[in-house]
Amino acid sequence: MIDFRDDNAKTTNRKIDNKYIPLTSQEGLAPLSPYLNFDPSYLPPREPQYIFPEGAVKQRGRFELAFSQIGAACIIGAGIGGTTGLYRGIKATALAGQTGKLRRTQLINHVMKSGSALANTLGVITVMYSGFGVLLSWARSTDDSWNTLTAATATGMLFKSTSGLRKCALSGCIGLGIASLYCLWNNRNSFSQLRYGVNPA
């Protein structure tokens, strides 16, 4: 029997007890929490948990994405158009020999004109595409690559519908080509799984 009044006995007893204290609930599991008396390995993996209404999908639909797409198209168009206008304005004012306030005013005019024109064009195209996509999703009750291809083709044809049948068809083909590239890139994981999943035998 150990005499707890003896300091040496206390030290020896503490060393023996600490030596056999398990650090995990079972061998190979995560260490026990020093604050909670349970094994953290039994907890589910840390993933974001969201509450969705009954029957709702776990991703934003085309209608929700339309607002960000239209805004992004306008901003990108304004940036590209403004840069192009600045470049053209610098060349035009240099050839005309303009300097000072006159040149600065002309540069601002070039930037504003080109930026607003391209922003308006891309914004209108995106509004058309988003509208067709929302209508197709509502009519077919699904959102897949066929909606994207159809919406892009219809957008291209409608955008050039006043320029003649040939330009209308050409614009539709351009929209179809861009949408096809997007769908191929968006579904690249499915194609890779299909390629590696086929048994050559």
Automatic annotation (TrEMBL):
GO molecular function: protein transmembrane transporter activity
GO BP of this protein: protein import into mitochondrial matrix
The UniProt record lists the keyword Transmembrane: yes
Subcellular location: Membrane
Top-rank lineage group of the source organism: Eukaryota
Keyword vocabulary terms for this entry: Membrane, Transmembrane, Transmembrane helix
Membrane topology value: Multi-pass membrane protein
Predominant localisation class: membrane
Protein name: Mitochondrial import inner membrane translocase subunit Tim23
